[in-house]
TrEMBL record:
Keywords: ATP-binding, Cell membrane, Lipid transport, Membrane, Nucleotide-binding, Translocase, Transmembrane, Transmembrane helix, Transport. GO terms for molecular function: ABC-type oligopeptide transporter activity; ATP binding; ATP hydrolysis activity; ATPase-coupled lipid transmembrane transporter activity. It comes from Rugamonas rubra. This is ATP-binding cassette, subfamily B, MsbA. Residues 79-392 form the ABC transmembrane type-1 domain. The lineage of its organism: Bacteria, Pseudomonadati, Pseudomonadota, Betaproteobacteria, Burkholderiales. PANTHER family: ATP-BINDING CASSETTE SUB-FAMILY B MEMBER 10, MITOCHONDRIAL, ATP-DEPENDENT PERMEASE MDL1, MITOCHONDRIAL.
Length: 673
């Protein structure tokens, strides 16, 4: 957390400080005329959010929801904010010390000693406390001892250090804690979201929601609170200080502020307008360059050089004119602002001198007054700008909570058998990817199919015929739109999702390996993996030999890029994983690309072991591999066109026979259908 207010006498000349003051008053002006708006070009990512900023009501709900994330840590939030408030208050008091310092320097000032600070001789303990308080908050030339003022400044600096540290530490602790909580709930959501969510969103978006938005949100939640406390305390503190030093001078200054704001706004508007035109002109320049360079062949062939030269000269001239105009306006603006600053500063000084002559303002009081006035600009500026981080944070909060609020997969079933027989029955199954859009063509239509326990059924059909869709319905990656699927005579939806999925192993063409050891990849999902079973599965999947050849055998890590495994080896790992799971139902999404003969033979042998005794649904892309299936189901446009054994279907001379002939005629028999 950055602590904005300057502590000791403001650095830079008083003129430049005053200029800043003028600018911040413009900041106030701008943010009241454009509530809730961020300036364009504040980073691509956030700019994207601006297009759909939440409405005010939503914003409030979002912000309260955001604050609720901090509720479990209430005492820490309280302590952090208290520390932040104390740090701000010490800033105010430190600047106030200028009064003591300057008055002590004034000729004739009594440096003899501070009654209270000298000890309890005069008024006892009470007198001492009064003396110190007087030195801390002086309202007349101080009689403090020389050492008392530096001592107070050191004391304040110590308090400030401790409170700033506590505030920063607390804020970092809180925001990282809330960020971690948000990330955890987002991730646990992501693991349980229905497939539909993944169909409609990109991995990149979800990644950035968890990685980036979560941190934006927690920081925004805290920052806004922080700014409100820190800068409100500072603003009120400085105001009190100004009024305590001289309320009439304070009122006079506050009266001048809006005047400065209005003038600087007008100057600023013209600058912004010019900057925009300059940006456009620069855009045109790069456009012309881009076109003529990338299209240089066309330019040459069609003799376009003079035309391109003229175009370029024109935009260069425009850029040059705008640059001069910009510089002239900037110079004029700063001149006008300087003049304005001079005038306002003179009037404040004039008024202050009048007050001094009237005996109402000591030199120290004047310096402390000006110091407080200058220092006040930062907190006010922060307060008026609090909307910017707030809006950014709210946009991120919308994205974070949006993800957390997405409904997870429906899981209302209660049955949880340890192991089913694996009997499947599809009854008039219909499926639409776009639920509710009855006009769209269904991906599956009136599909009825009984698969006996232990039977191998191959799904074939041209691309887009619905093979993958049908297989996806079995583990309830999607729910049927009409009809029902029964497992052992019970509707899939009556099983608990986890229990249903325990019955199914999946070997798909793109083998997903996690960044862990080979053994952990085979035993994936088992909370208590057994190495003996891992090895047995790997042997049965013809994977043991190549695993043994790895540097650390089964404990070799499948690094992100580390282990180089061939396609066939990866498939045998996937088969070993399915064997380890030992589920009664197997979904096999056959590889489309051919492996070399040796690999193919090993994978086929591994698959034969895997399929033994299991209900197997094969999504077949190459017909040559499924000739031995018990039954072949030919899908066409989401319907079952034919069904039967390989020989029976060939003899029938229908769609299957045609598909088979087509593939046979393509050399190598490796072409997917
Ligand atoms: N996630 C999805 N969202 C919308 N439509 C989809 C989705 N997945 C598939 N489809 C559509 O559903 C129909 C069936 O597709 P499916 O993937 O089941 O066919 P397939 O027979 O497995 O094809 P292939 O052999 O090419 O893998 C196709 O018309 C397809 O465009």
């Amino acid at each position: 957390m950055h602590h904005g207010a300057s502590v000791f006498p403001p650095n830079g000349s008083m003129i430049s400080q005053w200029k800043l003051l003028a600018e911040f008053s413009v900041g106030c002006f701008r943010s009241t005329t454009q509530p809730g708006r961020l300036r364009p070009g504040q980073g691509g990512y956030n700019a994207a959010f601006l297009a759909h900023s939440p409405s005010p009501v939503q914003s409030r709900q979002l912000y309260f929801r955001l604050l609720r994330q901090f509720r479990p840590y209430g005492p820490i939030v309280g302590a952090t904010l208290l520390a932040v408030g104390i740090a701000s208050a010490t800033d105010v008091l430190l600047i106030r010390q200028l009064q003591n310092v300057v008055d002590a320097l004034a000729p004739g000032s009594a440096m003899g000693g501070m009654a209270g600070a000298r000890g309890g001789a005069a008024g006892g303990l009470l007198g001492m406390v009064q003396g110190w308080l007087h030195a801390l908050l002086p309202n007349e030339p101080s009689k403090a001892a020389l050492w008392a003022i530096p001592a107070i400044i050191c004391g304040l600096a110590l308090v400030r250090m401790l409170s700033t540290f506590s505030g920063d530490y607390g804020a970092a602790w809180l925001s990282s804690r809330v960020q971690a909580n948000l990330r955890e709930s987002m991730f646990s959501r992501v693991l349980r979201l229905p497939n539909k969510f993944y169909d409609n969103s990109s991995t990149g978006t979800t990644l950035s929601q968890i990685a980036y938005d979560a941190s934006q949100v927690s920081q925004a939640g805290l920052n806004v609170l922080n700014v409100l406390v820190r800068d409100s305390v500072a603003t009120v503190g400085y105001l009190l200080s100004l009024f305590a030093i001289d309320w009439q001078l304070a009122l006079f200054c506050l009266g001048l502020l809006p005047l400065v704001a209005i003038i600087v706004t007008f100057a600023g508007r013209r600058m912004r307008h010019l900057s925009q035109s300059a940006q456009q002109a620069m855009g045109e320049l790069t456009n012309v360059l881009d076109e003529s360079i990338s299209g240089q062949r066309v330019v040459k062939i069609f003799g376009g050089q003079p035309y391109e030269q003229r175009r370029f000269d024109r935009v260069v001239k425009l850029n040059r004119q705008l640059a001069v105009k910009h510089a002239a306006t900037a110079a004029l603006n700063s001149g006008v602002i300087m003049l304005l600053v001079g005038i306002t500063l003179s009037s404040v000084i004039y008024f202050a001198l009048l007050r001094a002559q009237a005996g109402a303002l000591s030199p120290g009081a004047f310096v402390a007054f000006m110091g407080s006035l200058m220092a006040m600009q930062t907190p006010i500026k922060n307060l008026t700008k609090v909307n910017e981080p707030l809006q950014r944070g709210l946009a991120a909060a919308e994205s974070v909570f949006g993800l957390i609020d997405i409904a997870t997969e429906t899981d209302t079933g209660t049955l949880a058998p340890a192991r089913t027989e694996g009997r499947l029955s599809l009854q008039s199954v219909g499926f639409h990817y776009q639920a509710g859009d009855a006009d769209s063509r269904p991906a599956l239509h009136q599909v009825s199919l009984d698969i006996a326990a232990g039977e191998t059924v191959a799904l074939v059909g041209s691309s887009g015929s619905g093979k993958t869709t049908l297989a996806s319905l079995l583990p309830r990656f999607y729910d049927v739109s009409s009809g029902a699927i029964l497992l052992d005579g019970v509707d899939l939806r009556d099983y608990q999702l986890a229990a249903l999925r325990r019955q199914i192993a999946l070997v798909s063409q793109d083998v997903v390996l996690f960044n862990d050891t080979l053994a952990a990849n085979i035993a994936y999902g088992d909370p208590e993996p057994s190495l003996a079973r891992v090895e047995a599965a790997a042997r049965a999947a013809h994977a043991h030999e190549f695993i043994e050849r790895q540097p650390q055998g089964y404990q070799t890590a499948v690094g992100e890029n580390g282990l180089r495994l061939s396609g066939g080896q990866r498939q045998r790992l996937a088969i070993a994983r399915a064997l380890y799971k030992d589920a009664p139902i197997l979904i096999l999404d056959e590889a489309t690309s051919a492996l070399d003969t040796e690999s193919e033979r090993l994978v086929q042998a591994a698959l034969e072991v895997l399929m033994r005794g299991r209900t197997t649904v094969v999504i077949a892309h190459r017909l040559s591999t499924i000739e031995n299936a018990d039954r072949i189901v030919v899908l066409d446009g989401g319907r079952i066109a034919e069904m039967g054994s390989h020989t029976a279907l060939l003899a029938k001379g229908g769609l299957y026979a045609r598909l088979y002939q087509t593939q046979k005629s393509v050399q190598g028999e490796a072409q997917p259908v």
